[in-house]
Amino acid sequence: MVTVESLIRETANKFNESSLTFGHGTDNAIDEAAYLIFGYLDLNHDEAEEAYQKSISNEDLLEIDKLIDCRINQNCPVAYLIKKAWFAGLEFFVDERVLVPRSPLAELITNKLRPWADDRLVTRALDMGTGSGCIAIALGKFFPDIEIDAIDYSSEALQVANINLEHHKMTDRINLIESDFFSNLPEYQYSNCYDLIISNPPYVDQEDISNMAPEFHHEPILGLASGKDGLESVKILLRESCKYLRDNGLLIVEVGNSRQALEEFYPTLPFIWIDFMLGGEGVFLLMKSDLEAHMEILNK
Ligand SMILES: C[S@@+](CC[C@H](N)C(=O)[O-])C[C@H]1O[C@@H](n2cnc3c(N)ncnc32)[C@H](O)[C@@H]1O
Fold this sequence. Notes:
The protein is α/β, with parallel strands linked by helices. It has helices at residues 4-17, 29-41, 48-52, 58-73, 78-82, 105-110, 134-142, 155-167, 187-190, 206-211, 232-244, 259-265, 288-293, 295-298, and strands spanning 84-87, 90-93, 124-128, 147-152, 174-178, 194-199, 245-254, 272-273, 283-287. Helices cover 40% and strands 16% of the residues. The relative contact order is 0.11.
């Protein structure tokens, strides 16, 4: 009899013997195998002890074998194989139209943006580059009274976001907008309207794009690449956000390992870099007043 537990072990051994990169929600072969097998069988991670002893039918074994083959021979991320990913404790549908959710912003949102903001202050937010909609939807769950606009340039990504909005019953609170950054937000209608602009924009520089593991080539390049130095998108966010933020509004942006390049480019900007307990780095916060005070530099 093949049980869930024995199949996870066997699969992890195969993963360890292959040249795989774990960077889409797990960092080791056992967790990756469990992600795939629990995901395919729709098992609950909160009831893992019971699930491990379940036996797997021959039919399911054949299907799981095909997925393992895709993971090993095509380096396909598990999230795309099982069409599921988790973010801020919530489940999202994903496929190759969107990036696999993995931003450390999840931790900040589940902590209700404390100590930087609290739910009473945040009534309207913008998620720039929403992809699967994970950040917007998590905000909607943890801030029940908030109204959210969620922008993406990719109409295909917005189709996926819409699937997730429907699944999480957020269609009346989250407004999906197809736009090249702020270009479809007329200033007369949207200026000074957001308490929060939050974004996990593309921020990978050209060198990292050329060297990235095959797993990342399954993701849409529009969600990753951001010019030679990785700063193209964040420069637009820094320059444009001020107009759209209310007084006391916050801009929160993930830039990952482009942090150093960003600090070198804007040495006088007073970035606050957020620490995370659960891992991840390269997320900064700025107040609208910080942006206003540095407009001359940002407009250069
Ligand atoms: C790093 S992904 C983040 C996706 C999602 N927010 C997440 O955290 O998983 C960046 C997203 O920005 C979108 N994007 C890229 N260029 C854009 C642009 N010019 N205007 C708006 N969105 C853009 C991409 O399509 C992608 O969905």
